Amino acid sequence: MTVETMKQIIRPYGDTTGDAMIQVSFTLPVPHGPRAELAALQLAGKMGLDPASVVHSKAMGPDFTFFIVYGKATHLIDYAGIEVPEGREFELLPPAQVNAAVQSVLGRRLVVVGACIGTDAHTVGIDAILNVKGFAGEKGLEYYREIEVHNMGAQVAVDDLVARAKAVDADAVLVSQVVTQKSAHIHNTKQMAAAFTEAYPTSLTGGLGRPLLVVGGPRFDTVTPSDLGVDRIFGKGTTPGEVASYLVHALVRE
Amino acid sequence: MKLGLDPAVVRKARDLAARAAEPVIEMARTHTTVSVERAVLRLAGVTGADADGIPWVNRIVDAVRDQVGLEHGVALPFFAAGNWRSLKFGLPTGAERDRALARAREAVGAGIARIDRNRADRDRLLARHGDPEKPWIYLIVATGDIHEDIPQAQAAAREGADVIAVIRSTGQSLLDYVPEGATRQGYAGTYATQENFRLMRAALDEVSGELGRYVRLTNYASGLCMPEIAALAGLERLDMMLNDCMYGIIFRDINPRRTFVDQRFSRQIHARAGIVINTGEDNYLTTADAIDAAHTVVASQLLNERFGHEAGLADRQLGLGHAFEINPQIPDSFRLELAHAQLVRELFPAAPLKYMPPTKHMTGNIFAGYLLDAFFNLAGVMTGQSIILVGMMTEGIHTPWLSDRDLALENVRYVRRAAGDLSEDFTPGPFIRERAARVLSETVDLLHRVADDGLLDAIADGVFGVTKRPADRGRGLDGVVEKADGYVNPATEILEAAP
């Protein structure tokens, strides 16, 4: 086989293979009218839409216009060149198996400290993972007999989080970050990771000499754990069972 | 009344809420806080900050607390001091006390007179510009920069918003002082300051005149400075304030005692100022399941009503909150939403109910989200909700773009135009009636437990919003002081006197 034949070229799909049709919407800071539409078409062209058509334009006040544009994408994607992202590195375990693994290997309860750090007051994420109530039909970590949960709630200072983790000898620290304005979630998480590194100077890695650092939130999709200095990132829609299974995978080594 | 609720059960629910609230009201009557005392100084006209930006009201109250103690109130030591900038205070006695008391009453009375004038101004402007029909369309601006917020708020008003809420900077609820001056940097919102209040109210007065409809301004009397922000709202003619009896406790981990003491005073100010409070029950449904926890919303509304009435708020000032947060994947989810919304409407017929759009089940699929928001708007008009917060299809993705807000308003306008008076034709069948009756009976059961165990213990046990908040934990407890026999607060004297 030659390199050429390994390619798999794809285009967007409207209603016919290869039609390459896509739809975008955007606002331009100009008054509504024919000139504004030409500006929108020029932008569409520069985005690689050719031909393109403005199917909807609407004035939003005197100074702005909203557009919906359809067009044929001129860009090609070689699907063969796109690697399959790594899947979940751990096996999903039901609560009974999580409890059994913790009990037989650690011989004590696994201690978790959770918080929303910085000024973030949105406890939805951390509560979904920790509260008995849980999320998506799965009970939260408080429900697991062999997991001891300390939920510090909202707007916890990093120093307080470190102090509590030390006081209860935490195996893992779970931090939730929902507010993303000005990349606060990234800054807060890095600051938290740095504080733990400083507080546990002899630690080798998460779970060895310091608690495992786990962060969750809807907008961590552009960074890796090592960028942030944490051990694992969980995204939107993560269930308590996934987190519990990961903790067993990372901390409960046979 | 369409649901055929049993009036005896409704009465029972109210009696239980009153019984649960009573010990907390007694605690609030017999205590003061640093923020209540700072609010007294603000009403007396103390403004400004020291070179480090610490407001003088904080410096004064801290000094009085250290030198005299706060159990007598800040008013007497402050008005007895010759030059308060020396920050040296003592507790006056005899004729000196009488003179200080007279000066305190005069100064605080002038602040309350200004609140009264603002209330009269609002009534005059409502008559001149016109009061929009309900449901009022409620929109949020939140850029962090008051000078960016102003054109956005004016644009939103021109596009149909009846109420503009300026979201506060996220951290502000935990600041134990109110920043000074116009602010241009905030975090997920704009700081609540007296100057920001003044600037935005003036901008909305301008646009109200242009539109021929009075545009209301909303902010947040919550967090550690709840009483002071309430006072500033009265002084600058804000129209609605978020002011929940338990939100700060549950979601911000503010100490329960601090919250209840601060809340009572702030509600007395709101009552005087003609401000509509907005309560935060919608938030419970962001941590708890909207079906399982429906009765906690109603129980909290009844408690908010009782605390509000006790503080002097009229029914027309009780913007009780609730939300459209049932998982849309559940069969009959819309019918269940109608049952909950209609139940709240019938329990509080004279209250300007505030109905909050879906947030928890906005998935990032903006197209599906737009549809869900339309159903929310429909539920709002079908059940006669008074204030509709406009849902954004990009909820949970980013703070609303100009186009998000425009599309959202188009959605509301369509539903209002197409189905505005649908509540006249809406007659619930057995499914909705039975669901409403069941939520009400669960509410009664819950209020029984709360009344028997005590509200503070119920909050400690995590009855509301799942989170557990013990009465001796949380932020701000050290700012709570039991009043001594000679406690003086010229503001509460005036506010508690016959109207």
TrEMBL record, chain A:
One of its GO terms (molecular function) is cobalamin binding. Residues 109-254 form the B12-binding domain. This is Lysine 2,3-aminomutase.
Automatic annotation (TrEMBL), chain B:
One of its GO terms (molecular function) is cobalamin binding. Residues 3-493 form the D-Lysine 5,6-aminomutase alpha subunit domain. It holds the Pfam family Lys-AminoMut_A. This is Lysine 2,3-aminomutase.
